[in-house]
Amino acid sequence: MYSIEQSVFLVLEYHRLEPSPTATRRSFQKRFNVPNGHDAKTIRKLFAKFERTGSVDDNRVGNVGPKQTVVTPENVAQVSGIVQQNPRNTVRRIASETGLKRSITQKILRNSLRMFPYKIQSPQAIPIKAARQRFDFANEILTMIDNEGFGVGCIWFTDEAHFHLNGFVNKQNWIFWGSENPHLCEGRPLHLPKVTAWVAVCSRGIIDPFFMRETISSERCITILE
Predict the structure, then answer these.
(1) Which of 60, 64, 160, 175 could form a disulfide with 198 if both were Cys (CB 3.0 to 4.6 A apart)?
(2) Which residues touch 161 (CB under 8 Å, ≥6 apart)?
């Protein structure tokens, strides 16, 4: 590091000598009685900084140093206002409305506003009788497999996904922004209009998805498999 006096001397000499880094370095060595001086790249960089900022001091003014953050009080207030109007907004939508990057929006929500995305709770209680039936069924299947009286290849695993037609949102992609957990539960009717996608898989292959509006039952699953 060089002093302000040395930096000013380099800028003035570089300008006076119609820029010549070599002549500037030699003049600097003679003036301050030092064996070495700045290389050409450093001298040009210092002069360019002076032209851009009007200063040779390393005080990170102008465009020198890291860029200013966009997490300003105005942006924080803007994001806060949008969340207060609709806590169910996604980060993508908030960023689109504010014109900020998603990473900056996420930083404002987490660090500045101390908010976290809480998911909707949609509990479904399992009766004790049903839990006992599942346990007994699993033990029975294990016993049959151990006694070689049941082929594992005959086991089909099925699953279905329901797409509701009345605007109900799946809890997996539904969030609520807030500084505290609202413990929000949203009631819904027992029978919603929906379309069900059903698929089955086993060691022998996959049955492509079937789309239906009727309720999935064991009889209907057997019919499809047959």
Answers:
(1) 160
(2) 196, 197
Q: Report the DSSP beta bridge partners of residue 206.
A: 201
- CB of 106 closer than 8 Å to CB of 169: no
Return the DSSP state at 190.
S
| DSSP structural state of residue 215 | P
DSSP string, 5-37: HHHHHHHHHHHHTSS-HHHHHHHHHHHHT-S--
Pair 168, 188: CB distance under 8 Å: yes
What's the length of the chain? Answer: 226
- Measured in degrees and rounded to the nearest 5, phi and psi for residue 11 equal -65, -45
Helices (H), the chain: 4-16, 21-32, 40-53, 73-85, 91-98, 102-107, 128-146, 218-225
Nearest C-alpha neighbor of 7 from the set 47, 53, 36, 65: 47
- The domain segmentation of the chain, as residue ranges, is 4-53, 73-114, 128-225
Q: 53: helix, coil or strand?
A: helix
